Every structure is written in structure tokens, then in C-alpha cells.
Batch of 2 targets.
Target 1
Amino acid sequence: MPKMTRLPLRSTLMASVLLVTGAASAQEIADTIYSGGPILTINDSQPSAEAVAVKDGRILAVGDLADLKQLRGESTETFDLQGRTMLPGFIDSHGHVVMGGLQALSANLLSPPDGGVGDIASLQDALRRWMTDNAQTVDKVNMVIGFGYDNAQLAELRHPTREDLDAVSQDVPIVIVHQSGHLGVANSKALELAGIDASTPNPEGGVIRHDADGAPNGILEEYAFFTVLVPLLGQLGEEGIIAFARAGAQLWASYGYTTAQDGRSTAGIVEALKAVGARGDLPVDVVAFPDVLEDREYIRDNISRDYSNNVRVGGCKLTIDGSPQGFTALRDRPYHDPVGDYPADYKGYAVINMEQVQDAVNWCYENNIQVITHANGEGASDMLIGAIGAAQEKYGDPGNRPVLVHGQFLREDQVDSYQKLGVFPSLFPMHTFFWGDWHRDHTVGPVNADNISPTGWFRDRGMIFGTHHDAPVALPDSMRILSATVTRRTRSGDILGPRQRVDVMTALKAMTIWPAWQHFEEDDKGSIETGKIADFVVLSEDPTAIDPELLADLRVEATIKNGKVIYDAPDAIQETELRRSPFTASPEIGERLLHAMYEGMAID
């Protein structure tokens, strides 16, 4: 009689042992057989299957359940899908997994559906509540951070100011982070501590906004903001950053990701990821891309196609411009109707110059290193296209698979240029939901808004692409990505660019096999095929069999890495709270991370 064992899943995903013993030899006996629901392989030569057998973390066989009987043994367990759908684990085309910890532990300033902030008053209330709930920490370290406000979703249609934050506290330094991550606001105390006053010049690649009387109004753009926030975060210390890394990886796993990206790392962050991995606390693989302007020697010494304890350096990150919804992305024409004090010909700006772009791209090509480049506006893409073209003329094509990150505003001729240069586009169609109405009304206007994140243009040319969440800009919500890519519904219900919509299977490939190619991992990940790593996600329903308008409502029921369950969905109420504040369900981790975060940021 076979031994009775069970996978660590709740009753909704109960596992039991197959009681049929086959005649297979020991090396052919599966550890686990998955069946009982639709299995979408994302493999065009075998699009679906009844069952999948796994041994030693690899896929042993894919096919009909009857044909897999020979792989059963006394110790073989079965994962009963109970009508749910299994796909390959999602692969993060672009995100910032370590900074997911900041999103989790700061005051939640997100607008619906991920938060409750809809105007300046509710933002102030959210900060006050957080300060009350965390009074002991605030008293000890004298600092408050809020994350995720979006002026496009506030009733006032403006950024909060120094005075708005002063109304919360004039004594405690407060810094709030815009949802784009590219700008933020500081109260008077935080500005004072940062040494910013009316005489402070704009840093290169950044803007300090001012009141009519010339005093800083608290709103800081790009490098002006980073010069305030980054040093504070840099004081987290090793344990604080390690806690961030662990927490972010857990959050990614809860959305079905088995491979995460840290898309603008530092050497310190990568070393923290390695420390978490060495402790066995990284549930997912993480590919890191340190900043090419800061860490070239570290990148060259650590780049690898192989993981060590679930971590590797995959290449480098280059950032050319800023946020389209924040009007800091570099366009090739003026913004349509920007909200704020902008000149009529305002086009945004680059955060680095063309010489820096060319030098960075040349270094990557000379050293055969992959470069992923943040370029949101058409002007930024013009710079990137020019730099890659010049590098290829000088060095040829070393096969380093350069990546365009975001590409929110593109001309169709630029899509042709990216195709010619062999650039892989990692696109951001979630913008059609979160900021589609804002783009239509304010950034690019109703005509050009139809073509933001132009997945249709790339598919018209037969190009593959990835889709991403850019968390912590938004939660790493895989089903929101899927929904936005297929439907392009805005918050108001408008369809933004019906021509740019793609079918569900194309959208799923952009979350699995195509970003696997982006990361040079297509031989191991991205589809359910014999020999590949057993990375899976289990969804509540088959996304190819439901009304596309319901895609955002699908739930990730389980995430499986190397054949082991790393995430098991709680009930719906717990899940909602977990994803708004991922440490609510784990006070011990939350307390430890809060302590580590704020202990490092204590202000004398």
C-alpha cells in the first residue's frame, strides 16, 4: 500500500497520492503528477495537456493522463487541479522586486482599486492613520514615508504640496512617493533636513518646483527627488535591505511570478539578494540589472547566465527619461494639456545627455552585456535608437538582446527601427487601465493616446514582446496586466486604442515564453515542456475560456517553483488585505522589516 502524503495546499487544492504503481524504473518515477484541470502549456506544438509529470524540479513528461501511468510509483504524489487551470509560471519582464518592500511598509496612498486615496484630504487622513497606527516607530525615528499617490486620480488634479503635508505634521519629516516612482513631495521639515531652500539649484536631470514667492513648494522631480529619498533608503543597512528583498519576492510569488526582476539594482542590493538566497529565503528566481552609470565594474565581475541561490546579474539598466503621467518623459513634441505650470512648448526632459547614453550603450556592446533601457517618450526613444544603431555599426551585433523598457509614447517609424535593430520591447499596457484617461486628456491627447504601449504595432510586424507591471509603480498584479493587454479598458471604462489589443494567448506569451527569451532563459522556462524547470501558476479559471472583460477578476490560487508550492492563496478577504499591505498576515515579518527600515533612517 503506498504511503499517504499530501502537498501543503488548502482543501480547495487538496493533493493525494496516486494508488496505482507503474512498472517504471526508479529514475523514471515522477515525484508529482499534475492533472484534473486545463493545462495551458504555451507550447505551440502541444498547446494543452491533461497531465504533467515532474521529477527533481524538472518536467519529466507532458501529455495524456493515461500515458503518464508508467511514471507512477509508490512515492508519486498527485496535484489535483480540481478544475482550475495551470500555466507556466509568470516571468517578470520588468519590475523592482526589492523596492516592493518600500511599497508594503509605507503609508498606502494608492487610489482605488489598490487603495482608498481620492483627494488631498483622504491622502492626509491616510498619513495620519498610519502615524497613529505606528506611533511608537514614528516617535523613535522621526520620519514618515507614504507611497503611491497619483495626482491624476486626485479630485484636485494636482500634486500635494509642502503645505498639504505640513497640515499633517510640521514637526515630523514626511516624504511621499508618486506612484510612478519618479517624483515626490516633502514637507517643510523634510526639505529643511535635506538642505533644500529657495537658493538650491536644480540638480542635473531633476527639478525643484517653487511657489510664486520662490520658496520650494515640496514637489521634487526625478534626480531632485532621488537626492532626498535614495540617501535615506541607502541607510537601511544590510538587514533592512535583506528584509526588503525577501518581502518583495514573497509578494511577486503571490501573483504567480516564479522569476522576478530587479530592474535598477545597486551592488548593495544584489549582495542583499544573494544573502537572502544563501539563507534559502528567496522563493523565486531574481534577475538583477545594476545601473550602468554607477556599477560597471560590479556588473562586469558578476554577470552570469546561471543562478546561484536563485540570484544572478543579467546585465545592466540605463535610464534616459522619466514618467509620462508625471510629465517628465521626453517627448518629440509638446505635451497635450499638462496639468501644472508648464510653458506652451514643454516636452519633458532627459535625465542624462546623449553622450552618456552613447557611452553606456557602447560599453554594453563592447562587453557583450545586455542593456535594458528605460525610455518612455518619443524623444527618449530617438536617443536610444541612435545609440544602439551607432553601437551596432561599431561593434556589430554580439547577440546581447537589448531591451526597450516601457516605450509608452512611440511613433510607428520607431517600432520599425526597433525591429531593424533587434530590440526586444518590454511594454507597459497596464498604463491603459491606470492612466489611460489621463493620457487621453492631458499627456498625448485623444488621437495619440490610442497608441500608447502599442502592442498591436509590434504584433503586426511579427515581433515578440514582454508586458510588465513596473512594481512598485503598481502592484505586481499579473491578472491586471493580462486584462489590460487584452481589453485596454481605462478606469472610466473607455477602450484606449482598440487596434492595439491582442488576443489572450498572445498576452499570455508576453508574460511567459517571450520574457523567458528576453532573459536568455527560453530553454528552461516560459512553457510547459519536457526538460524545462517545473515552474507553474494555478489560476481560478481558464483565461482563454472566459469573457475577456473578466480577466482582471481571476485569482492566482497557487504558485509552484521547481515543483514545490511557494504560494497558496488565502481566502478572498485575507488576500485583498495581504496585497494592499503584504505584511498584515505576518506581523512578525512586518515588525522586523519596519524596525529595520526605520532604524536605518532615524533622524537625529
Target 2
Amino acid sequence: MPEIQARAAVRVAVDAPQHSGLNGPLDYASEQALAPGSLVRVPLGKRELLGVVWPGAVEPDQALTLRPVTAVFDALAPLHAAWCRLLDFAAGYYQRSVGELASAVLPPQLRELSPDQLAARLRKLERKAAKAVEAAAPVKPALAPEQADAVARIEAGITGAAANRPVLLFGVTGSGKTEVYLRAAEAALAAGRQVLVLVPEINLTPQLEARFTERFAALLPEPLAIVSLHSALTPAQRLQNWLAAHLGRARLVLGTRLAVFASLPQLGLIVVDEEHDPSYKQQDGARYSARDLAVWRAHDLKIPVVLGSATPSLESWQHAESGRYERLTLSARIGGGALPRVRLFDMKALPASAGVTTALTAPLLAELKSRLERGEQSLVFLNRRGYAPVLHCGECQWKSDCPHCSAWRVFHKRDRTLRCHHCGFTERVPRACPNCGNHDIAPIGRGTERLEEQLAEALPGARVLRIDADSTRRKGELEAQLKAVHDGEVDILVGTQMVTKGHDFRRIRFVAAVNPDGALFSSDFRAPERLFALLMQAGGRAGRDAERDAGGESPSEMWVQTWHRDHPLYQALARHDYVRFAADQLAERRSASLPPFSHLALLRAEARTAEAAKAFLDAAAGLLQDGQVLVYPPVPHAVARVADVERMQMLVEAGQRARLQAFLRDWVPTLIELKRQHKAVLRWAVDVDPLAI
């Protein structure tokens, strides 16, 4: 080993504020040579921060003038070079500093611990991981031919017998995609590799974790061999699970979007379940897409990545159509179960009669009652929580708007509050109209809370349960409610999109979607894609038990109550025809030069006044000119004001991804300088590949 200088210089990725312009790693002096990926503490201004020693050399003569590294976490093995490459790529692509990104994705508790404290945690982890528990070998279900073909293809990528293109596993709801994931994971584990499985929502992690634990209890008997990574863990749990993955003790990691950055030195397979889900896109800070980074990470490591969905994102579908991704199809439900019959219920054909509402129509109530008498479970899906969207005064037309946002406050009857779902501002419901004093103020519209109440009134004796973000706030509530559904203690489940994703409800035979039309006329070009996916997923909760179908029970059904029965989206839904829907949508996108046929970025600005935000964006538009990049005029955000802050945005479009990236690389440093001139601007951010415009 070559002799080390007494005082070496190292590059360290540290979280420097964006406005400082310090986007790359900073140089520090060290008493010892440190391997890239080592965790250290370093001074920055008057603070001491966690940093990562970054690959790359420093000019040797600079070491004499540099500030020294304060502490080294030498008990912990350095982060792998592949992890550093992932961070470098993500920081460059999403226009953030590598230190900011590293700070955001490493466990928060690492910032608080000293090297000695971390060493103690590692010793505790070693003791915990040493106790193996014997378990019986699992009983595996037989694979359908399509499943077996998919598993064989993915296994060939794991063993190196075939070249690795990203795999799009296109399977109808209930077709056994999870079993394909389990078999593929088993092959990777048998080859001595680690496996990363990403899910879109935290509430799906425990359910999936239970299935993986049950399957691999015999193969992975050691504690911490299967761990989860998501924001609902305590800081101590998150650090423990991250360390287990980093040290190679955790062989299987399940997590939400943050887990794409997990340190996995022996990674051999990545699975992205429900790859179409918008939850994979981070909406603040470094606005990364975990799905896209999973594809990049697999390409970098030359390992398989499996993207699974019944309704793939149009970007992934287009990649499969062009041959960039390999498409594997599961076209039938396991056990021969039928997909629910979709009935489009035309609201215009409903006879006008007093007391009939647009959600609980007379035919829907009759069908729910019929299912109830047969002992079947039903799901009523409405994607709006709360009791009613707004309170309204019939005298002066006052509505319960939020004084801090350009949005309505939602009426929550259970705690008699008006709550803004954007800034959180909450007040007790007024006894009279605050504008004119009229005591007769009434709710307009409908949320899940009101629907739950009306169902209980209309169907006395029915056990009605509501699952949404309000009813599952407290720890353990969601798990308890899902268990009640699985155990048959619920007759009618009322829920938002939270209940449509991934849950295997064996007893549900009937699904009704009420008031879904709003998304048909949204200004967001992705709204139809999201609505179709949501309705397909909601319908997919019905009829998942093939034995009940075979037993002669009434067929599983999905009703969609719509005022636009002939809309192509609903017609494709009625045929369960995602392929036709995708073809129509892609043709529209191509003609309008929208993604995936163009590449977008948004520059967002926030200020106390709309004028200040617009002035910043107008100035930004004039900073750089590129004939192949189109910069549109600034417009207000869809919800223009939140918490008394005005929000404006400006769209940047290019035909080639590389052209957009080159433009942003030159543009962003000039924006940092521009912000110093526009002091009224509170925040600005670049969102690459935005999900909503």
C-alpha cells in the first residue's frame, strides 16, 4: 500500500443551501486517506454537517489551506461506488446539488450521531442479526403458463443468460403479478443477491411485507433479513433497516419511493409495483421519479428491473411499443376468475324525482341492498374526502373559502370543522353565515364522510366503514380497518383512491364509482390517464376469489355513474381495454407534442405577490436563448395561493431529453444569481418531468 501523506485533501458532498451556488462537493483536509463513500462530519460556515467523501481528486497543494474533516465514521463501511454514481446522476438530472440529495436520502438519525454512537448501534445490530429462527418451507402455488414464462425471462436476466432490458409486466388486476415478483426474488436471493421491491403507498408496505416474510421465512431465517424503508418508520427503525441493507444483512428491502436510494451493495433485482402510480414522483425538494431512477440504477448495474401494472404509465407503454422495454403479459386472472362486468350507468337517463341524489341513486341503493341480502361485500368509491366540499349561504352566496389559499375549505362533520386540504387551516363551523348572518348555511357537494352517513341511513343494519386519509390518521387504524374488511366484518366499504391500490379484498363482489366525471375536463393532460388507472384499479378489487365465481354466486360487477356514458375513456373501461385506451391517448399526445413525445420542465416561483413571482419568471425567460427549447409565458399554479403565498410557474419544452438537460445545466446557475436580484421571491424550484402542469 503506498505511503499516505500526513495531510490529504478529500472532496465531500455536503448539504449547502441552493442559493449559495455551492452545487458540487467541497474540498476538505484530512489527517488520513479516506475512501470514497466514507461518512464524515465537516464544518460549513458556523455549522457542522454530515457529509459523504465523494469520488475524485483534489489539487494536492490546496490541502494546506483547507478546513479539516472534524470526525470520521470509520466503523461503517463506505457507501458503494454504484451508490455514488446513482446520486451523481439523480442530482444532475433533477438539477439539485449532490450534497442536498445525499442529505435528503440518508437516514436522518445519521446527522445526529457521533462516530462512537454509530459504532454502538452497529454492535447492537450485530447482536440482533445473530439470532436465526427456524421456519417451515412455504407452500408455493402452481404457476399459470404466462406467469411461468415471465419468471423464466426475469431469471435469465438475473443469471446473465440474457441481456437485460427493463421488463414491463402488464397484467390485469388479480393476474398474479405478486407471485411473479416472489419467484423472481427467490431466484435473485438464491444467486446471493439483494432484492429491492418498491410500492407506491406506505399502507401497502405491511401487507406486502407479510407476504414476502411468509414466503421467505425458511430461506431467510435471520432477523433483519427482510426490512422495510418508508417515512412512517421511527428514526431509529429507519436507521436500523438502512444499516442492515448497507451491510448486506438485509437481503430483501421493501419500500416506498425513498427506498430507491437504499445502499444495497449486492443488488441483483429491482421490482416497481404499480409503476404507473404518481406517488413515485417526489413533489418537493429534489423532485425525483423513483420509477425512472430504478430503471437507471438497474441499467447501471446491468441487472433486471420489473415494472408491474394493470394500467402502465403511457411513458412505459410507449417504451414497450418501441422495443426499448420488454413487455410480458398476464392476460387472465389466477384460477380462471372473471374480471368484473363494467356497467356504465347513464345519469341522464335517470327519471327526475325528489330526493334522488347524484351519488346514491335509487338503482345503486337497490343493488347495494341486494348484495347485502346475499352477504356480499361492496365498495363505493368517491375520490373526495370530508363531508362536503363547501358550506354555502343561499342568501348572499358566501362559500367556505380559505382566507390563505385560492381553494375551498372542506366541511368535516365529525369534528364540526372547516379544513383546508392545502395549508391545513382549520376553524370551527360558524353558527351563521360570517358574511350576512344567515343561520341557514348548508353543505354543497359530497365527500366520503357524507356518503358514509347517507349509506348508513338508507341501509339500516348495514355495517358501513369509511377508509380515507381522515379516518386513518392515528397509528394502527388503517391496519385494523383493513383487517375488519378481510374478516368480513364490513358490508359496505366507502373509500378514496387509498383503497383501490393493491389490496386483495377476497369478499368484495360489487364496486360503484360515483361522480368520477370531473377528471374528464381537467386542464391537466395526464388527468384521463390517472382516471382510467384509478377506475381500473377500483374495479379490480371486485371478484378476486375465483371459487366464489365458480360457486354460482352473482357475477362481480362495477358500476360507473356518469353523465358522459359515450366518452371513449368509459367505453374502453367497459371492455377492460387498456391497449385501445393507451393507443388513443398516445395518438393525442403525439399530435399535441406532449410527453412521451416531448420533454418538459417547470420553473416554479413563490412570492407574497403574484407580480413578484411573475417578474422573476419573466426575467428567467430572457436569461438564455435556445432555438430548440421553447419557454412558455408564466401562468398561475392550479391552486394559485397556498398559506398566503402566491405560486406561478413557467413551462420549458424540448423535443429531445438531452437538449432539455443541456439547457437546464446552463440555466439553473443563472437562476441562482437572478434570485439575489429578486428578493421578493421566497422560493423557486425546477421540476424536471413534472407530473402535473
